[in-house]
């Protein structure tokens, strides 16, 4: 799993600012995530900023000042339109088409901080090529990939209970019922995986429904009491077993210690919400896990899998060559 944080985005934007032409007069962000990249870039370049609507309407976001129709952006010769990332190129293509309809008196170029191997063909400038699967800090809980993720509840969707609240009785039932959400996913989650006990399923489901959390599966510990759960002390092992059995691509966990253990046990990535860190398995574990996956696909499809794999390698090779050729030409 390729993960980039806001801190890494800022670092890449700073490098991009050095690599861009020195005569950029205006930075334009593509909503929503592109506005984050545009804001960081305009500060590094010390130039004004606007969004796509602002560019079309002749106004700057920084000041709200609207130029008159006869002198719209009269001191602007070169504009850079930027998004945080380009994958399929759909959003960038739509933006190009919209802006092409305007007869701007300046040059418009396009950029992205992160691109896929194919993304170079949609932009004039880019920062880093990031392969898939990938996810960014600023869209982690709002990404369609959540349908293939395991997500912890306490510590992620809501805070952890206090010692007083965690009494496995009236106080805990009140906590489960009334706790305020911290961050709510806006996409459907594949598996909500929690160490809450099965006897609190109804209350948990009611809370999730009340806060509009959509999910396919709610996995809870099937144990009689908190004391039994504490005696076993196998929280990370339990979550790792669920993670493995689901075939999910990512586990979003609140505890850093558990995140490390889950990753070690599964050989798969785990995002720690508390420390804002993607815990990655070591290279040997990843290779072993990927090898088993490919072997399983080969056994299931002994004829079609080798053909698909060959086409994939040829396509990736061509994309890589195109990317290198573009970089060489620009340099």
TrEMBL record:
Keyword field: Glycosyltransferase, Transferase
Keyword Transferase annotated: yes
Range of residues in the leader sequence: none
InterPro entries associated with the record: HAD_sf (IPR023214), PRTase-like (IPR029057), PRTase_dom (IPR000836)
GO molecular-function terms, A-Z: glycosyltransferase activity
Highest taxon in the source lineage: Archaea
Protein name: Phosphoribosyltransferase family protein
UniProt source species: Halomarina halobia
């Amino acid at each position: 799993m390729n993960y980039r944080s806001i801190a890494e985005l800022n670092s890449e934007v700073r490098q991009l600012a050095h690599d861009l032409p020195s005569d950029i007069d205006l930075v334009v962000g593509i909503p929503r995530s592109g506005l984050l990249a545009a804001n960081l870039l305009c500060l590094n370049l010390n130039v004004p900023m606007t969004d796509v609507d602002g560019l079309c309407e002749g106004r700057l976001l920084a000041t709200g000042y609207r130029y008159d129709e006869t002198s719209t952006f009269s001191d602007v010769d070169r504009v850079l339109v930027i998004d945080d990332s380009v994958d399929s190129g759909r959003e960038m293509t739509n933006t190009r088409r919209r802006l092409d309809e305007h007869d701007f008196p300046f040059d418009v170029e396009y950029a992205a901080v992160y691109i896929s191997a194919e993304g170079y063909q949609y932009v004039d400038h880019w920062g880093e090529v990031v392969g898939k699967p990938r996810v960014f800090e600023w869209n982690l809980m709002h990404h369609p990939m959540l349908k293939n993720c395991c997500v912890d509840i306490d510590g992620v969707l809501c805070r952890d209970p206090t010692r007083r609240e965690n009494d496995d009785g009236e106080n805990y039932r009140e906590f489960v019922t009334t706790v305020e959400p911290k961050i709510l996913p806006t996409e459907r989650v594949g598996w909500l995986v929690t160490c809450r006990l099965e006897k609190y399923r109804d209350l948990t489901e009611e809370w999730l429904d009340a806060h509009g959390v959509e999910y396919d599966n709610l996995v809870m510990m099937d144990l009689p009491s908190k004391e039994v759960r504490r005696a076993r002390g196998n929280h990370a092992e339990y979550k790792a077993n669920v993670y493995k059995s689901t075939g999910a691509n990512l586990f979003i966990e609140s505890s850093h210690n558990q995140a490390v253990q889950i990753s070690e046990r599964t050989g798969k990535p785990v995002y720690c919400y508390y420390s804002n860190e993607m815990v990655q398995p070591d290279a040997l574990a990843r290779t072993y896990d990927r090898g088993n996956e490919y072997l399983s696909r080969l056994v299931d499809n002994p004829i079609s899998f080798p053909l698909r794999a060959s086409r994939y390698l040829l396509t990736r090779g061509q994309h890589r060559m195109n990317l290198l050729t573009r970089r060489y030409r620009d340099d």
